[in-house]
Specification:
It is built from four helices and 15 strands. With 299 residues, the protein is mostly beta strands. The longest helix has 17 residues, at 13-29. The N and C termini lie far apart (48 Å). The chain binds 2-acetamido-2-deoxy-beta-D-glucopyranose (3 copies). One of its GO terms (cellular component) is apoplast.
Length: 299
């Protein structure tokens, strides 16, 4: 199936359809083993559908998103969640990806003014230069909580697992099972935290050449289009409440079940020391010491 990967995403819709039928049949045949690997049953295309294609990548059904000078592409989860762990494997654009942004994020629906959002954005770069993993968290419509990380591997060489863990006490971002970011629920200290609006997962590939790469100095080389990023093994696991508790939001405040374990704490410390390249909480130029966001002094 390799030649298909190299084909422009704008290959004729008819071809696309017959491939899908074929792959659908294939997926049906092995459905018993593939319940969680079936991307198509979990997600739907939102825009740029003609620039996407599903294909079997090893044992998994994968989705390719592509971007050309006219449009990118985007999918979202069919379901909305309130407290969940979402894992997805992503293989980023190979070679020169300057100006492109590949994302996986969760966001609540209307009203926008008070929306919640958890963002992972992979900012492309020129060949040989590292991607930046840009993260942000909005609660009650307010974001500005950017943290950026370098990855400790080449994210274009293979799939890696990126996860969002959202429970009543923490939002964690994990890479290959290692926690790199924690946003703690400090509502009792007056810091908003997403606790009541359900969110959907989105994945997208789009162009942000005016700011993404080296502050926008490096533009996209459109002669290399289409740019293609791959997603597979989307796995959303609802937060499971303790026995006798109706849902995770009802866990008693005294419950310790969402407390971070030693490994998570050690991973967070490691990521902060070695992989973090920007932290809004230490941006003295942007925030006057007196106006640092409140959570920065709490965690
Ligand atoms: C999905 O994620 C959950 C929670 O991490 C895990 O227990 C489960 O094994 C995963 N399912 C698959 C098919 O990977
Ligand atoms: C791209 O590479 C340059 C040089 O290594 C680096 O400064 C920059 O942070 C990288 N990422 C982006 C998104 O510009
Ligand atoms: C930062 O705080 C100092 C002292 O409170 C004040 O004089 C200065 O104008 C502030 N600067 C900005 C950019 O808010």
């Amino acid at each position: 199936m390799a030649p298909l990967l190299a084909a422009p995403a704008s290959s004729s819709p008819k071809l696309c359809r017959s491939w899908r039928v074929l792959l659908g049949l294939l997926a049906l045949l092995v459905a018993v083993d593939l319940s969680a690997a079936d991307m198509y049953s979990e997600i739907e295309l939102v825009w740029g559908a003609s620039r996407t294609f599903f294909f079997m990548d090893g044992d998994s059904e994968a989705l390719a998103l592509s971007l050309d000078p006219w449009q990118g592409s985007c999918f979202r989860s069919r379901e909305k969640y309130l407290y969940v762990q979402v894992d997805v494997e992503i293989k980023l654009i190979q070679g020169d990806s300057a100006g492109t942004v590949c994302t996986i994020y969760m966001i609540s629906e209307d009203p926008w003014e008070i929306h919640d959002e958890i963002d992972l954005e992979f900012l492309g770069n020129v060949t040989g230069q590292p991607y930046t993993l840009h993260t942000n968290i909005f609660a009650n419509g307010v974001g500005g909580r950017e943290q950026q990380f370098r990855l400790w591997f080449d994210p274009t060489a293979d799939y890696h697992t990126y996860s969002i863990v959202w429970n009543p006490k923490h939002i964690l971002i994990l890479v290959d099972g290692k926690a790199i970011r924690d946003f703690k629920n400090n509502e009792d200290q007056g810091v908003p935290f997403p606790t009541w609006q359900s969110m959907r997962t989105f994945g997208s590939l789009w162009s942000a050449e005016d700011w993404a790469t080296q502050g926008g100095r490096i533009k996209t080389d459109w002669s290399l289009a289409p740019f293609v990023g791959y997603y597979r093994n989307y796995n959303a696991t609802w937060c499971r409440p303790s026995p006798g508790v109706a849902w995770c939001g009802d866990e008693p405040k005294s419950s310790t079940r969402f407390d971070l374990d030693q490994k998570t704490l050690a991973d967070l410390q490691w990521a902060r020391a070695n992989q973090m390249i920007y932290n809004y909480c230490t941006d003295a130029v942007r925030f006057n010491a007196t106006t640092l966001p409140k959570e920065c002094t709490l965690q």
